[in-house]
Design a protein that fits this description.
With 385 residues, the protein is of the alpha+beta class. Helix content is 60%, strand content 12%. The protein starts with a helix and ends with a strand. The longest helix is centred in the first third of the chain and has 51 residues. Helix 3 runs parallel beside helix 4.
């Protein structure tokens, strides 16, 4: 859209320039006026003193306030001084105008560039960045905008990947169910108990995936309903370990617990925290070698004067590569791309863990070394959230 003359004069550049030029002009006019007004009076007093010294030999007589009529030389001198002051004033105003305009442009040009990039981002060109040319507030604003634009681009990419992953995860069980049902309808596959059990397993897996997606989406927008109450985490950990003992026994994996004594209750939703422990322990069992060991321990720790309850789960698995470590809590992320959803899960377990812990006011962290295992730490505030 073309910029009209009215819009141009509404620009911040002209407004800043005008304001500064007005300030300089008023200052110059006041200085010239005061200098002119005082110069005539002071010059007359000077002439009186000189006349008295010359006529009386330095001995004053008559009124000290007498005045003299200035001659042409004196008048020419004063007029020359007044003219010089006016020209100096004009010069200062011209320099002030140029300096004001330059200063205003130094502020508005980066803002204008930022506005142009913002317009591109508004039109869907996410990831565009504005040049950061200064270290002042405008440069800081441009830096914040650039980080926001890059974050929007990253979120858009993650959203597209999430939709693609959801479509892939839903398509596989649906294709299995559809193929088997078509085979039964056509008489190619006999509808025996084994086939029906397989279809039932796929339906259960599909329902679990949809439930996980629903819980994850609600947790991310903090809309998941929690039923918090004081809970003994040691008891909750022991119950979860007991529930998963058959799964660990199948791989001859020992689950060792080292639970702290006199641990205070923590205000959480027991069912959701059980889901957190279950997801982490299932992963630990799945990726631990046969006849290995998993250690679970709890502790009360202080961090920045705040009390926290810490639950740690350590395994002896193959570990997580350093380049994969920042992404283990992302949706559908698997470090080993060869794992499918049956051997490696749906890829939502740790994402759900992260969201559930965070809506309780806590956080979850992981430490891992390749071929040495991983340790997941769950931090829960002992203050009510």
């Amino acid at each position: 859209m073309p910029v009209t003359a009215m819009n141009r004069f509404n620009s911040i550049t002209y407004r800043i320039t005008g304001l500064m030029f007005l300030s300089i002009s008023v200052t110059v006019f006041l200085l010239i006026y005061l200098a002119d007004a005082q110069m005539v009076e002071l010059f007359q007093q000077y002439l009186v003193v000189q006349h008295m010294e010359m006529t009386q030999g330095g001995q004053a007589s008559g009124s000290p306030t007498m005045t003299l009529v200035m001659g042409s030389l004196e008048k020419n001198f004063l007029e020359s001084v007044h003219a010089s002051l006016r020209w100096v004033g004009v010069g200062i105003m011209a320099l002030g105008l140029a300096a004001s305009y330059a200063l205003a442009r130094s502020i508005t040009i980066p803002i204008r560039k930022l506005g142009q990039v913002a317009e591109q981002v508004a039109q869907g060109e996410l990831g565009k960045t504005a040049p950061v040319e200064t270290n002042d507030e405008v440069g800081h604003l441009a830096d914040i905008f650039n980080r926001m634009s890059q974050s929007l681009a990253a979120n858009a990419t993650l959203r597209r990947q999430l939709l693609a992953n959801i479509a892939h995860e839903l398509r596989t069980p649906l294709a299995v169910i559809q193929g088997n049902l078509e085979g039964m309808v056509d008489g190619v596959i006999a509808p025996d108990k084994a086939q029906l059990r397989s279809l039932h397993d796929e339906a259960v897996r599909l329902n679990r995936l949809i439930k996980d997606l629903r819980d994850l989406s609600l947790a991310e927008v903090r809309q998941l309903v929690l039923e918090k109450r004081p809970t003994d985490m040691n008891q909750l950990v022991a119950r979860t370990v007991l529930m998963l003992k058959p799964l660990a026994d199948a791989k001859q994996i020992r689950i060792e617990c080292a639970l702290a004594d006199c641990l205070p209750d923590v205000v959480v939703d027991p069912d959701r925290m059980n889901q957190v422990l279950y997801n982490i322990l299932v992963n630990a069992i799945r990726y631990s070698p046969a006849q290995g060991a998993i250690r679970v321990y709890t502790a009360r720790v202080m961090e920045q004067t705040d009390p926290w309850l810490k639950v740690s789960i350590a395994d002896e698995g193959e570990g997580i590569a350093p380049e994969d470590l920042p992404y283990v809590f992302d949706h559908f992320y698997r470090g080993d791309k060869s794992r499918d959803r049956k051997s490696g899960g749906s890829g939502l377990g740790l994402a759900i863990v992260k969201q559930l812990v965070e809506i309780h006011g806590g956080r979850v962290t992981v430490e891992s070394r390749v071929n040495e295992g991983s340790v997941f730490h769950i931090w829960l505030p002992l203050k009510a959230v």
